[in-house]
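Request: Could I get any protein with tokenized structure?
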Amino acid sequence: MILSYLTWNVDPYIVHWGETGGIRWYGLLWAVGLYLAYLIQVKLYTHEKCPKEWPDKIFMWMTIGVIVGARIGHCWFYEWHLTNDPIQIFGWTINYRNPYIENPFALLRIWEGGLSSHGGAIGLIIAAWLLNRYHFSKEDPKRNTDLIWIFDRLVIGVCITATLIRLGNLMNSEIYGNPTSLPWGFIFVRDGQTEPCHPTQIYEMLYCIVAFIVTWLMYWKGKCYEKRGLIFGTFLLIIFGTRFVLEFIKLDQEAFESNLFLNMGQLLSIPFILWGLYLIIRACKKSC
């Protein structure tokens, strides 16, 4: 019998308490992903004989950076809603309002959900820059670390974290694709769907796994960490290039995106794609 579709009705909570509380798969998978990324950093930094405390420092800084960045990124990029009370700024009429600008303390309501992968990426970049400036570059100046040096190693673990986060999105029945007649379509009944849709969470899990395999082999087999920026650039091209393409079959996360030629996920992916191409070209030119 050929699979025609799959009815997805998984409870997003592992454990319930009260009417709205409990432990969600999403939060658990985030935590497991961060821990696995930490173990990978320990392995890489030990291989390169870096100071023993560096993996702990990068875990602390990167965890704070990715969570804060992901939260702020979601609230800034995706929480624009059509309003009946438009405002005028320098002659421009703005028909959308963002409740988090009017009430910044609402950012702390993390139980309401809302994390952005692009915001997380920006948070990681800022945290890595600060970490290198105030720690790595001072503690071991002969190693000549910088932002790219950190990310050539960090992104290998990020691939695993991203894979588990997308699995968390699947468990939440969120961020899926348009209706499809393909045999592996999912009906996300908990989100009110009645027809099969593209399980884009699984597609994204697959390209994250591919990115992990490629960057892992580049590091251990190709010793590409000696070509600064090559691993990081390849990661950016795989992750954000594939994300850009997949957005064409994903439902818009917010209503305002329907008025855009490219949706928010695609617009935010373009700078990372261009950065990845630049890093790859620069690394290849230097190695010639």
User: Anything to note?
Assistant: Residues 6-78+114-220 form one domain. The radius of gyration is 20 Å. The beta strands are 6-8, 13-17, 21-24, 81-89, 92-97, 186-188. The chain is about 55% helix and 10% strand.
